[in-house]
Structure formats: structure tokens, C-alpha cells
Amino acid sequence: MQRKHKNWIVSLSTYPPRACGIATYAASLNRAIEELYAPACESKVIAMNRDDIVRSRYPREVIFQIDQRQPQDYVAAAEKMNNLDRVKLVHIQHEFGIFGGEFGAHLLRFTETCVKPMVITFHTVLPAPAPAMRDVVRRLSGDVHRVTVMTQLAKRLLRDAYGVPEEKIDVIPHGIPPTPYQTSAKAKVALGFEGRSVLLTFGLLSRNKGIEYVIEALPPVVKRHPNALYLVLGATHPDVVQHEGEVYRASLVRRVRELGLEKNVFFYNEYVSGEDLLKFLQAADVYVATSLDPAQAVSGTLSYALGTGRPAISTAFAQAKELVSEDIGLLVDFRNPAAYAEAISRLLDDAPARLRMGREAYVRSRAATWPNAALATWRTYAVCVPALREAEMALPPAKLSHLENMTDDFGLVQFAKMHLPDKSTGYTVDDNARALLAATIHYEKFRKPSILPLIGVYLRFLGGAAHPPANFCNYVGEDRVNLVDVSCRENQEDARGRAFQALAYAAASPALPGCYRQMAKKMVDDVLASNPEFASPRAAAFMVDGLNALLSEKPDAALERMLRGRCDHLAALYREYRADDWEWFEPCLTYANSVLSEALLLAGKATGDATYLEIGKKTLDFLISRTFSNGMYVPIGQKGWCLRGGERSYFDQQPEDAAAMVRTLTVLSGIGSDARITELRRRAFHWFLGENMLGQVVYDRVSGGCYDGVGETSVNLNQGAESAVSYLLARLAMES
User: Fold this and answer.
1) In this model, does residue 169 exceed pLDDT 90?
2) 478 with 426: CB under 8 angstroms?
3) In terms of Cα–Cα distance, which of 497, 598, 494 is closest to 543?
4) Domain that holds residue 430
């Protein structure tokens, strides 16, 4: 529920429209936190100005401004924070150059006055600090509750060179846009660079960027690759302009002309961010990181490039040595044009290797996307303000974009390579039945006409997969031919149960057009006439859910007898396998476990049978005891499951399990339950939003898809049909 007055998290930082990397970082982090925790907090800003004359037209979230040269401004800002009850925490984005005094010592006036919990992020941590610098950093670190840095090296430096206690420091990688991976071809066309091999360096221009050494390296590269194009993207740093104007840029342009590289080097003298920056990054074949500072702890530009899936050629500064391994890029010596020339030629010579490096860079960087950086930052906040641990996360919109992307005119494609459908994997009844169920529920809740064509596709697919009419062939090949032999070799009961469940929902839905309901009803009637007896408990559970949907439309004694028959089967399994320490229907916990309890809860509510309700609640309580830990939902892992009397597996966790638990807890909430069940349901859904064992998001807000699972060390970045529809079903259940 939306709060009337949200809590404030206040950033002390430079802020857009000021042209500054720290400003861009602060704005991106604030947006990501608000997107995740909109019900719980609102981001506000204390903006740093160079002086009292040069000002920016700030957005509404800026509530105070500081002239970096004036000590009294820092005190006034701190006192204002102290007097605002809504301010729960202040997050300082620290860079020495944006605060006044020796080594930014004026900032101490703020930290010594402010009584609110504070976090400081050090964007620069220099080795061998001068005594005065060391003293400022130590005092700042002592005044705040937590310190964050972006690399392990920076953490070690703070500990060893500055004496900051290690247990006070959190490492949170520099955030990157959560953009889908794509090769450079499309973006090159959009920017007019088609047919060129594009090298890119971006960021505010200054002498410590070392651009001249790349320019000196280009003549032998261009001789070998005449289509090579080096883009230097970024305005000159405002401080440089103030002190020397455009002298450095002019020297670079002059050298380009002297070397005859006018057709191979383009300068863009503008501050670029957001979508425009993304287009340039996506158009690049290779990113060139040129810093001349070996101690540079963080480069947002390098982080962004790797996060876009671009291989990097970089000087061996501190962060680059930590991030750039041989399988995602190449390190070169400082001020060495020959090393640049060799590295650039090597990557331009080998397009397949270059693409492999870019993909690997993309995969490795996913833990640093802005949503994941925001989650990690919020966990740091919660250490300082424990009440934030219980913060309500925002429900993302129930997007259909990925479902539409994965669906062609025949059906829902089974698997994906990252966010793109892999049509070579064909189609399944399982996935198309799930999709029909989700699409029907979505239409009932939101009445969006655009979803009706999808419902038609899924209905026609299920009709074509019926083999014979009361049965379903689960696998359909890329050529759209039923793979009867493959289907017959596997147990198809679950697919048949899912098909009946989805068709029953569609047949019983008063919202769907009559033609769709009739298509579904004909297939439902064929299944009912065959009266299938499922040995699989999940297939029986899916059928119970479908029968319950039909009974919800109108009572029918024959359907109720059929429902009771399946529930009696589940109850018999429970009595067979239950023990003092094992309240379950099988000798193991595997996948989509909660649907078994859910079937009996639904049947108990529909028939008034207390036995069904009792078994449903007991088994669900048992499952909850095995899958919730410290308030976090932890699905049974597919690597080994959980055998009675044995240890449970924790990986790989699947979206299907989280979705099933959300839906089952929703059913129990509808029967009548306490606040505990509501909270468990919320926690189960938050598994998708990052409250899982990796602390990473599983739902992709950009594509509208869902990653295929949580492994021991990483998230599976493919966004297949089962995962996408499972998330959508969970999200729709949260509407209830």
C-alpha cells in the first residue's frame, strides 16, 4: 500500500545536470533504488556546487545545495537533515575534487554535525596517501556507519593504508545499465557507422585520459584495417575548460590531422548519458580504456562498456587489473602506442574471438546491473537502519513484452538464448498451457485487447497437439510437427494435466470472447469424456485446479465426483508416505511442490471437506519449514532434490517453484489466514526481485522476461518460456 509520507534516503553528491561522472552515478543509483523500493522510500539530494555563482537547474529531488568552498554550507545542510524526521539515512558519494578544503576536509563539517545514519562511498582510494589525506579519510570513515567501495583492491587499501576497519567496509560494484545484449550491427546502422570497425573511448576529456597514445597507435592499425574508426566521446571536463580551455582537445585534433587520420578518428565534444550513450556503446566493437593513473580504483566508463558486452583494451590501472582477464579483453602498458596497436589489431583481426570476449564480459557483469547494485546498497543501508530490512519492494508492472517476443504465429517457443527465442528448440504443451493460463488470468485482471491474439495462438497450439483428442503430445519440433516418438518415451502426465488446467480456466472465464471459450470447452469436454486417471500427483493437482475453475463457474455433481477422486488419490499418497518428520505426498521434494497442497486447499474450500483442508495445511506447513530460511524463500534445488532422511539441495533453484509457492500462498490467503501467510507470500515473490541466496534479481525489468534459475555462483541468464510464464503467473497472483 502506498505510504502518504515516504521515508527519505538523501544523497550528498554532485548531481545532473552537472556534467560529472559522480553525478551520473548518484542519479542512476537513486533511480534504481526507487524502482525497487518505491513504496518504502523516496530519493532526495544535497547537490554539490563549485561555487555560489555557477548553478544548475536541478530536478525537484534536490532539496539543498552546498557551495563546496563554504564550510558553513556543510553545517547548514547537516542541521537541515537532523531536523527532518523523514530523513532515515544520508549516502555520501565521495570524490576528493568535489569537496572544499585540503583533500576535501570541509566535508568533515557535515559528518561531524549530522546525527542521521550515514554511508560513504569512496570512488577514489589512493595508495600511499599523504598524512593529511589519510587523516581526512580516516575521520570520515569514523563518522559514518558504513563505508562502501567498488573493488576488492580499494577495500584492502582502506584497511591497510588508511586504517579503516575491514568489517565496516562493503564492496559493491559500480552499477551498469541492465541492457539486453546485442551485437554492434544494429547500433552502427542507427549512428551511420555501418561497414566500420568501431573503437570507442568515452568520458569527460582531460590530460590524464591518455587519448594521444591511442591516436599514435592508429597508423599501423589503419594500414591493416582501413575501415577502423576511433570515436572519442565526451565533453572536456569543466574544471579543465575553466583552467586551460580546450588546449588538450585542440592538441589531439592537430595530431590526428598530422597523421592523416581525419577519416579514422571522430571527436564528439558533448556530455552523453542515458540512451544516447548506450547507442554508442552498442555500436562499438572494442572499448578502449586509456587511464594514465595506475592507482585508479574505479572507472565507470570501463564498467559500462563491459556491461554492454564489449571486449576491452585497457591500460593496467587498478580496477582494470581486477576486471579485465584474457577472456574478456587485453591489458596494455601505460603510454605505449605500440602495445595499443598490437592489441587493437589482434582483436580486429579475429571477429569470432572478439564476439566471444564481449559475450563473456556481458555474462560476468550481470551482478553489477543497477538493480543488483541497488539491492546491495539497500542491504548496506539496512545494517545502518534495521527497519529498512522489512521494506516493501515495488511490484513491477505485469509486462507481456517477453511473452510476445517468445511467441510466434504457431506457439510459445520453448527456450531462449539470453532474451532471444531459440526456435531450434521447438515448442511444448507444458509451456503453451502455462502461457494460456497466464494470458487468461492477465486478460481477466486487465482486459487488454492486445493479449487476445496470444490466447488464440495458445488455444490453436493445444488443439493441434491433441493426439488423440483427449491426449496431448508434449513436444513439437521446429518444423511444427508433433514429436510423437519423443513424447511417448517420457511421462507426459504433467503436460496433460497442465493442458487441462489451462483449458478449464479459459472455458470457465466469463471475460474471454465466446469463440475462445468454445474452443477451450471442446477440448475440456474431450478430456472429461476420457476421465484420465493420473499416477503423477502433480498431474492430478493440475486437474483438480482445472476442475475447481469449472465448478466455480457452475456446480456440477459429476465434476465434483471427479475432483474428489483426484483429491482422494493425493490424500492416499500423503497417508502412504507421511511420517513424524515427513508430512508429504512423496518420498522426496522435487519441483513445483506446493501445487500438491494447493489442490487439496482448493478442493477443501470447494467441497467443504475438512480432511482435504487439514492435509493441505499440514503439508504446506511442512514445505514452508523446508523452503523458508530467515524470512527468505529458498526453493528445493534441482541438483539432487530433497530425499526423505537426506540433505536438501540448494541449487539450481527454478522460477517455477517460486511461482508455485506464491500461487499456493495466495490460495491459502483466500481461505483465511494470518499475517504470517501474507508475509511469506511476499517473501516468496521477492525471490524474483533479488531476495534469494545470490542476492541478485531474477526478473528482468527491461525485457519483461525471467532468468532461468539461480545457481551456486551465478544466475542463468537465458530467459526461456517456463521461467517467463512462471514469473508472470506469480506476478498476477500478487494482484489478489
Assistant:
1) yes
2) yes
3) 497
4) 401-733
- Among 453, 404, 417, 458, which Cα is nearest to 435's? 458
Position 532 confidence tier, pLDDT thresholds 50, 70, 90: confident
Residue 193 and residue 104 share a domain: no
Task: Write out the three cell numbers for 161.
Answer: 593504508
Residues 632 and 728 in one domain: yes
pTM to 2 decimals? 0.92
Q: Which of these, 494, 501, 474, lies nearest to 411 by C-alpha position?
A: 474
Q: How many CB atoms lie within 10 A of CB 102?
A: 12
Distance separating the N- and C-terminal Cα atoms of the chain: 13
- Among the listed residues 451, 375, 521, 540, the one whose alpha carbon sits nearest the alpha carbon of residue 732: 451
Calculate the alpha carbon distances from 179 to 236, 306, 372, 578 in Å: 27, 11, 13, 48
CA distance 99 to 106: 6
pLDDT band at 2 (very low <50, low <70, confident <90, very high): very low
pLDDT tens per residue across span 267-313: 999 988 888 899 999 999 999 999 999 988 888 899 999 999 999 99
CA angle at 329 for the pair 358 and 262, rounded to the nearest 5°: 90
Do 270 and 307 sit in the same domain of this protein? yes
Q: Is the confidence at residue 192, as pLDDT, over 80?
A: yes
Cell of 526: 474431450
Q: Are 475 and 460 in contact (CB under 8 A)?
A: no
pLDDT of residue 1: 40
Same domain as 458, residue 431: yes
Residue 316 φ/ψ, nearest 5 degrees: -85, 55
Q: Residue 199: beta bridge partners?
A: 230, 286
Cell (9 digits) for 605? 474450500
Joined grid coordinates for residue 246: 580546450
198 and 162 share a domain? no
CB 7 within 8 A of CB 40: yes
The pLDDT of residue 470 is above 80: no
C-alpha pair distances (Å), 400 with each of 21, 443, 703: 35, 11, 9
Domains identified in the chain, total number: 3
Decide the pairing of beta strands 632-633 and 628-629: antiparallel
